[in-house]
From TrEMBL:
Its main location: membrane. One of its GO terms (cellular component) is membrane. Keywords: Disulfide bond, Glycoprotein, Ion channel, Ion transport, Ligand-gated ion channel, Membrane, Receptor, Signal, Transmembrane, Transmembrane helix, Transport. GO terms for biological process: monoatomic ion transmembrane transport. Residues 457-800 form the Ionotropic glutamate receptor C-terminal domain. Residues 904-937 are annotated as: Disordered. InterPro entries: ANF_lig-bd_rcpt, GABAb_receptor_plant_PBP1, Glu/Gly-bd, Ionotropic_Glu_rcpt, Iontro_rcpt_C, Iontropic_Glu_rcpt_pln, Peripla_BP_I. Pfam families: ANF_receptor, Lig_chan, Lig_chan-Glu_bd. Belongs to the glutamate-gated ion channel (TC 1.A.10.1) family. The chain crosses the membrane at residues 583-601, 640-658, 821-845. Residues 1-19 form the signal peptide. May form heteromers. This is Glutamate receptor.
């Protein structure tokens, strides 16, 4: 114990003395370890960039008092070797920072060592998301996490409309780390991953070839390659040999390969021709061009036997990392650089006694606060890794690559960086990219999937329907082959003819079809027994949870089949049915109102017809409303009212006559039932097809389960309907519309369809979830149903739809209601009211002087003196004396001659101031409209 304590104290004392001497002499050093795979292209590229960064930095910063010293080690692509080298650097070389290691699997263990010894570990090549700084705070990523590129890849998948992709990745921490994030991003855009191809690092050429053969047996033709360049080279070479770099295929490579794409061998680039790639975008600058030129010369000097390589993004990140570390080292005092080690020390590689760096926390803090503009762009490790900004999308063409666009989190996929932010990609349009040359040197976007032309055929599930017109399945006893015919089969085969590609298929019959429901039939697709299920399969909500359906190829809905009855017996009050109650009362109200208006207008001009009592005059006025052609109306306003009313009356009577005729003649045949809810109230029996979901639907609608009967064939339905609900049969059949058409084609007379009473989506074909064939089949079904093909198929299997007069929806003729004629009533009401107002205005205008005199007399009687009253009485007496006798001579009608009749009007007056008692005596006859009045005093 004492010896160990003395040794530890001596070691610390020596380090302190050496540090102080270095400060005094002005030559302070900071040891930095570098762990790279020096046999790989990335390792060689990074080593050249790091050495050049050391030289360039201290040429620019000659006045710096702290200089970092690099100790470069080779990991030989082995995680254990990388860890061993890290321990050696920490224990024997007293490094205060480690750059690297190169691979994510190596960085996992080395970052733990750095965390234990408080030595920052900075990797510019380990991109796996599993390396989280939350668990190892001394690990810094001077590059981007693989998570940053998944949204760019997903945007490409979305833009080109691909629904399924297969990731091909190396089976390491680096390869597996991106998969969960890629799955999430694709699901957000509506795409999925049906299969994951993991290739071991140690896989031989034969193993890679076998995996590619496996991929060729699948439908998906879009692949995302995420692996190191060494494995990717073999993969693409084999893919080209197997014909997978041809039309119908699409390949996307991640930035691990794209960053060094221009440094790959020409034969590998030729194999990758047509692939897309994404990589971190490095802005162009003069400094970058000058450095790239110097780097190419230096790399050729360092590795004269290697093929000429071009500077990649990893080399730029390595260069900027050295500059950031050198700046941070200058800001850290090396006086306190003492490692606190445990007292027991057995050997130089013992993890348990590893010391903790005194300047490690300070150095880490300074690195996190370093921000500058480097060759790779903005260098900022504040969040312990570089922040994603822009990704570049390239297309491998010939012996190199060409830029076709960019991706940003704000704008999505764009062709140029200066484009307006509103120009983003979407699922319904191609991404805004330059033209792409796809595998096979094609310019047409691959559809992303293909039916394999070898191996198993496309298995199509079929089953015999309760209506053989839709599907009949038979098995050949000699060849044991399954054959199917029917309406659904013709539609399916017509779709196959219209597809732009061939689909080798075979029909597979459902086992024990008689005892299995259609839900079980569709579920076989989910289990993988069939690649598709066709037939009279109703598209229902519960079935969409385990299968995808095409658009329906038949009409939708659930309706009733009911008998028809001869409705020839009419009751005594049938004449009231054409009009509703509100229309009857509304018409009567307007009859009366129009008559009153005419009476008021004619009364004003003393129409000779309006004599006698009040009710007699009102009756005559209303009579004018019906028979204006026989009776005379004198006022022009009355005539206008009558014209409008006659027009309204004509429309109402014509409509009444037409509707009454329809009730009495056209509608001889009536359905016995028109409302499904009336069937429930009456407790009637109803029928449905055995095995159909309609049975459950009837219970949901409220039918008693005991009132529901199942039948097998259309003849069974006809027999049950003919007997009726009270005779052991049924009152109605609740069925889907396509089946009803078949029933009516056989039993046209005596039955009809009422409804639909319930909405359904019709019949469709079932495919596995997210099957790429659903969209193609749906589009072709639309082209069939919108054209003449579906009509010919219906005629073949169902018959002529117009042959049966009862076929179709029948409903009772609706009575005409008040709302139907509200516009007409509004017109006549406005016309009558307006005429009445005009007459009132004319009356007030003609009698304005009398009205004024009356008003003045009222005012005089209420407030004037006796003198003024006497004067008024004198004037009144004079007027009475002058009007003692008047004679009115009225000329007769010119047709009656020129004789005239005198009307003597004698009036007896009382003395002035007393009540006036006029006693008019009339002796007249009918006065024509052109009467002339002459007054003789």
């Amino acid at each position: 114990m004492e010896i160990a304590a003395r040794t530890t104290f001596l070691f610390l004392f020596v380090n302190l003395i050496l540090a102080r001497r270095a400060i005094v002499s002005g030559a302070v050093t900071l040891n930095v370890g570098v762990i790279l795979d020096l046999q790989s292209l990335v390792g060689k590229m990074a080593r050249t960039s790091i050495l050049m960064a050391m030289e360039d930095f201290y040429v620019v910063h000659r006045n710096y008092t702290t200089k970092i010293v690099l100790h470069i080690r080779d990991s030989n692509a082995d995680s254990v070797q990388a860890a061993s080298e890290a321990v050696d650097l920490l224990e024997n070389y007293n490094v205060r920072a480690i750059i690297g290691p190169q691979k994510s699997s190596e960085a996992t263990f080395v970052s733990d060592l750095g965390n234990k010894s408080q030595v920052p570990v900075i990797s510019f090549t380990a991109t796996s998301p599993t390396l989280s700084s939350g668990f190892v705070p001394y690990f810094l990523r001077a590059t981007l996490s693989d998570v940053a590129q998944v949204n760019c890849i997903a945007a490409l998948i979305k833009g080109y409309g691909w629904r399924e992709v297969v990731p091909i990745y190396e089976d390491t921490d680096y390869g597996r780390g991106i998969i969960p994030y890629l799955v999430d991003a694709l699901q957000e855009f509506g795409a999925s991953i049906p299969y994951r191809s993991a290739i071991p690092v140690s896989a031989s050429h034969d193993q890679i070839e076998q995996e590619l053969y496996k991929l060729m047996t699948m439908q998906t033709r879009v692949y995302i390659v995420h692996m190191s360049s060494s494995i990717a080279s073999t993969l693409f070479t084999k893919a080209k040999e197997l014909g997978m770099m041809s039309e119908m295929y699409a390949w996307i490579v991640t930035d691990g390969i794209t960053n060094i794409i221009n440094s790959l061998n020409s034969s590998i680039l030729d194999a990758m021709n047509g692939a897309l790639g994404v990589k971190f975008y490095v802005p162009k600058s003069k400094e970058l061009d000058d450095f790239a030129e110097r780097w190419n010369k230096r790399f050729k000097q360092d590795y004269p036997n290697d093929s000429l390589s071009q500077l990649g993004t990893f080399g730029l990140w390595g260069y900027d990392t050295i500059w950031a570390l050198a700046q941070a080292a200058e800001k850290v005092s090396m006086v306190d650089d003492i490692s606190h080690k445990q007292r027991h020390r057995r050997n130089s590689t013992c993890f348990g006694i590893m010391g903790a760096s005194a300047i490690g926390p300070k150095l880490l803090d300074e690195i996190l606060h370093i921000k500058f503009r480097g060759l790779s762009g903005d260098f900022d490790l504040e969040n312990r890794q570089l922040q994603p900004s822009i990704f570049q999308i390239i297309n491998v063409v010939g012996q190199g690559s060409q830029e076709i666009g960019f991706w940003t989190a704000k704008h999505g996929i764009i062709r140029q960086l200066d484009q307006n932010g509103s120009e983003t990609t979407n699922v319904n349009s191609m991404p805004d990219l330059s033209p792409v040359i796809w595998p096979g040197e094609l310019h047409v976007v691959p559809k992303g999937w293909q039916i394999p032309t070898y191996g198993k055929k496309f298995r199509v599930g079929v089953r015999t329907s309760g209506y053989p017109e839709f599907m009949r399945v038979e098995r050949d006893p000699i060849t044991n082959a399954t054959t199917a015919t029917g309406y659904a089969i013709d539609v399916f085969e017509e779709v196959l003819k219209r597809l732009p590609y061939a689909v080798p298929y075979e029909y597979v019959a459902l086992d024990n079809a008689d005892s299995r429901s259609y839900n079980d039939f569709v579920y076989q697709v989910h289990l993988g027994v069939y690649d598709a299920a066709i037939g009279d399969i109703t598209i229902r909500y519960n079935r969409t949870s385990y299968a995808d359906f095409t658009l329906p190829y038949t009409e939708s809905g659930v309706a009733m089949i009911v008998p028809v009855k001869d409705d020839t017996s009419k009751n005594a009050w049938v004449f009231l049915k054409p009009l509703t109650t509100d229309l009857w009362f509304g018409s009567i109200a307007f009859f009366i109102y129009t008559g009153v208006v005419i009476w008021l207008l004619e009364r004003r001009i003393n129409n000779a017809e309006l004599t006698g009592s009040f009710f007699r005059q009102l009756g005559i006025a209303i009579y004018f409303s019906f028979f204006a052609d026989r009776e005379r109306v004198d006022s022009i306003l009355s005539r206008l009212v009558v014209i409008v009313w006659v027009f309204v009356l004509l429309v109402i009577t014509s409509s009444y006559t037409a509707n009454l005729s329809s009730i009495l003649t056209v509608q001889q045949l009536q359905p016995t039932e028109t409302d499904v809810h009336e069937l429930i109230k009456k407790g009637e029996y109803v029928g449905y097809h055995n095995g159909s979901y309609v049975g459950d639907l009837l219970e949901e609608l409220g039918f008693d389960r005991r009132k529901i009967r199942a039948y097998e064939t259309s003849d069974d339905f006809a027999d049950a309907l003919s007997r009726g609900s009270k005779m052991g049969g049924i009152a109605a059949v609740i069925h889907e519309v396509p089946y009803i058409k078949i029933f009516l084609s056989k039993h046209c007379k005596g039955y009809t369809m009422v409804g639909p009473i319930y909405k359904s989506e019709g019949f469709g074909f079932a495919f596995p979830k997210r099957s790429p064939m659903v969209n193609d089949f749906s589009r072709k079904i639309l082209s069939i149903t919108e054209g003449d093909a579906i009509i010919q198929i219906e005629k073949k299997w169902i018959g002529d739809q117009h042959a049966c007069q009862n076929d179709g929806s029948i409903a009772s003729p609706s009575s005409l209601n008040f709302k139907s004629f509200s516009g007409l009533f509004l017109v006549t009401g406005v016309a009558s009211t307006l005429a009445l107002l005009i007459a009132l205005v004319m009356f007030l205008y003609k009698n304005k002087h009398r009205i004024r005199n009356s008003i003045s007399r009222v005012q005089t009687q209420g407030g004037y003196g006796s003198e003024h009253a006497d004067r008024q009485n004198q004037e009144r007496e004079l007027d009475y004396n002058q009007a003692q006798s008047m004679q009115v001579i009225v000329p007769n009608d010119p047709e009656d001659g020129t004789c005239q009749q005198e009307i003597e009007i004698s009036t007896e007056f009382t003395s002035p101031g007393s009540e006036v008692q006029p006693s008019p005596v009339f002796a007249s006859r009918e006065t024509p409209d052109n009467s002339l009045f002459r007054i003789h005093p």
